[in-house]
Design brief:
This protein is α/β, with parallel strands linked by helices. The protein is built from eleven helices and 20 strands.
Length: 371
């Protein structure tokens, strides 16, 4: 693999140095189109990748935006989003968020009774979404599970009647409901959310329901893509049930992050050393979990390719592990959950060749650090 969408990787490496992230906007546009064919309202969970160019592309394609912090609200505004198309979804307010909400008509998603009280002080007489914890959750890892009794996220489903009463006391109106049970979930669990939404009674003023995000992508060649048509049908049928109960129209939005951007991104690094132990052959590269933490944090799989620096034909593959430069044993891109080092079958590489880590467009640069 020596180029991506006509862009020469060795030339990019010579021009910009390594490591670097590369994003294919055509892939992002395609994923947006896939979602918009089914769901009329799409909101990008920018925590997956808040790159300004990506936010600008989303805005131009008519995608709304979700922000989990005042900083993300600021980035959305910088990317040209009108405040009305931004929603703030977080577990708490902070001083910067309070100022943002006071000064801009952004929507707010409250995830606790305390946030309801505080929102009423910030925006008296305002309208609000409630984020609901339906009592269950599921993600590609326990660390990305955002529902159930062990999750800090959302209003516990048994507290909804009390929160409806509280909102009325505080003089604010609940006009939307949001549920998000985890990142990288599966069809079975995501479909359960739709039924839980239909069973949620948060008063007569609900005008919008949000299916949240969590849509998985096929990181492995053997992974099956999610059936978007079926997923939409499940949610739309429950939306219609809610409309029947309330007696008025209810809009539905979806909030994908990973699905829209993950497959667009590549992390490219240079091989600086090759070493062998009794168990493994290691390709050591100039990027680590400070740039892509998913393997170290979750044992997440990312397909890896080799790009020859000299343009030669690559030979047969052999098992190899790929690791970074950091002084941490978990700085390995080929590992399972729990830090167990594994290999991928890779063409025999040389020092100076490039390693390409695929599907790095979501929760890659966004979770990078200064370590």
């Amino acid at each position: 693999m020596s180029e991506i969408s006509g862009v020469s990787l060795p030339e990019m490496a010579r021009t910009y140095g390594t490591p670097f992230y590369l994003y294919d906007s055509a892939v992002i546009s395609d994923r947006v189109d896939q979602i918009q064919k089914r769901f009329p309202l799409v909101r990008y969970a920018q925590k997956a990748n808040p790159h300004l160019a990506i936010l600008d592309l989303m805005r131009k394609k008519g995608v709304l935006v979700d922000s989990v912090s005042a900083g993300e609200v600021h980035r959305a505004l910088r990317a040209g989003y009108p405040a009305e198309e931004i929603v703030y979804t977080a577990d708490v307010f902070d001083d910067r968020a309070v100022e943002m909400i006071k000064n801009h008509p952004i929507q707010v998603n409250c995830g606790s009774p305390d946030m309801i009280r505080q929102f009423a002080e910030i925006r008296p007489g305002g309208e609000v979404f409630l984020r609901i914890n339906p009592g269950f959750g599921h993600g590609h890892s326990k660390k990305t599970d955002t529902g159930g009794p062990g999750s800090k996220h959302g209003i516990w489903h048994e507290e909804i009647p009390e929160c409806v009463r509280l909102a009325k006391e505080c003089g604010i109106r609940i006009y939307g409901l949001h549920m998000h049970i985890g990142s990288g979930s599966n069809f079975e669990h995501l479909s359960k959310v739709a039924h839980a939404m239909a069973e949620t009674d948060a008063g007569p003023d609900i005008r919008v329901i949000s299916a949240g995000g969590g849509l998985p992508i096929p990181y492995r060649d053997t992974d099956e893509p999610i059936d978007l048509d079926h997923y939409y049908e499940v949610w739309d049928s429950q939306r219609k049930e809610i409309e029947k109960r309330l007696g008025h129209e209810v809009e539905m939005e979806i909030e994908p992050g990973r699905f829209l951007v993950a497959e667009s991104g590549y992390l490219v690094a240079k091989i600086w050393a090759i070493k062998e132990t009794a168990a493994f052959k290691f390709y050591l590269v100039d990027t680590g979990f400070n740039h892509l933490i998913r393997p170290a944090m979750y044992g997440a799989y990312h397909k890896i390719s080799i790009c020859p620096a000299d343009g030669r034909d690559l030979g047969e593959s052999e098992p190899a592990a790929v690791a970074g430069p950091l002084c941490e044993s978990c700085d390995v891109f080929t590992q399972e959950d729990g830090g167990v080092v594994i290999t991928q079958d890779l063409p025999k590489a040389q020092i100076g060749d490039y390693v390409i880590i695929h599907d790095a467009g979501a929760y890659g640069r966004a979770m990078a650090s200064n370590y």
